[in-house]
Amino acid sequence: MRRMCRTGATLLFGAGIGASASRLLSATDGHEEEDRAGLLSTLPVVPVSPGGSGAVMKYGFPSLGNIKTRESYVTSYDPRTRTASWVIERLNPASLSGPSDRKYCEFREDDRATNADYKGSGFDRGHLAAAANHKWSQKAMDDTFYLSNVAPQNPHLNQNTWNNLEKMCRSLTKRYLNVYVCTGPLYLPRQEADGKFYVRYQVLGRNHVAVPTHFFKVLILEQPDGRGVELRSYVLPNEPIDEKVPLERFLVPIETIERASGLLFVPNVMKRTSSLKAIADR
């Protein structure tokens, strides 16, 4: 019960951070935000199938820094944290089936983080784009094992609640035409004994790989027959979570993630659909 209460308090605080950021953002130049949204919407989309990286960007880029394109996903890499800012993938029945096998995959170094940074740290190399999402191609699955697609994740979270969230994303392909998943780390402030708020996080190894305080998933769900788009957004703390806590408890308004991360989702989605339903009920 203590763990559940702490988790709930953390999420409520995250929502508060979003509200505070909203007031700060309102003081900035509105034209700046419009220009940024416009720029993000002008990047080309190159359709490939069934789960290739071109098709996943149908709903735009949340940000434009250090874009990497893989066989199965697109990511924006943050060299300061040695992890991704976000990873986007597209799931459908075709991408979830195929001959690929995880036993042939190994974690590969491709940027500033190394496997040695994680060794003995007590953290898992937690996938952002999940390997099981890309059985359609062995190369697509292999690409999910680049260290730029992982972040330090609490083992209990990675192997239990986070794994359940990934499974839920895959199950949604039975109800929706396509399931677009954007995943990334968050570094949220916490109130300490002196009453002040601080952003503190551990770093791993010689390369100082940042350990996120939280993780987010934003799901863009395409309704069949062109009936519009549903949006679901989740924030989970990077700590053990009682498996009895339902995933719906971690639903948050999309604005919470946008304000905490500085990423854009809603403006891009609205350029592609006239019907958007955001689901944030817990």
Question: Can you walk through the features of this model?
Answer:
With 282 residues, this protein is α+β, with helices and mostly antiparallel strands. It has one domain: Extracellular Endonuclease, Chain A (3-Layer(aba) Sandwich). It has eight helices and 13 strands. A seven-stranded mixed beta sheet has the order 1-2-3-6-11-12-13, with helices on both faces. Strands 4-5 form a two-stranded antiparallel ribbon. A hairpin with a 4-residue loop joins strand 2 and strand 3. The active site is at residue 127.
Entry summary:
This protein has 282 residues and is an alpha+beta fold.
Order of helices and strands: HHEEEHEHEHHEEEEEEEHHE
Any idea what the CATH superfamily is called? Extracellular Endonuclease, subunit A
Strand proportion, as a percent range, falls in 15-25%
Placed side by side, the strands forming the largest sheet appear as: 1-2-3-6-11-12-13
Spans where pLDDT lies below 50 across 5 or more residues: 1-33, 39-49
The CATH architecture name reads 3-Layer(aba) Sandwich
User: Average pLDDT value?
Assistant: 86
- Helical content band: 25-40%
Quantity of strands, as a count: 13
Strands, helices and their partners?
Blueprint: H1 2-25, H2 30-40, E1 67-69, E2 74-78, E3 83-91, H3 115-118, E4 124-127, H4 138-143, E5 150-153, H5 155-159, H6 161-171, E6 178-186, E7 190-191, E8 197-198, E9 203-204, E10 209-210, E11 214-222, E12 229-237, H7 254-261, H8 266-270, E13 276-279
Parallel strand pairs: 12-13
Antiparallel strand pairs: 1-2, 2-3, 3-6, 4-5, 6-11, 7-8, 9-10, 11-12
Helix pairs in contact: 1-7
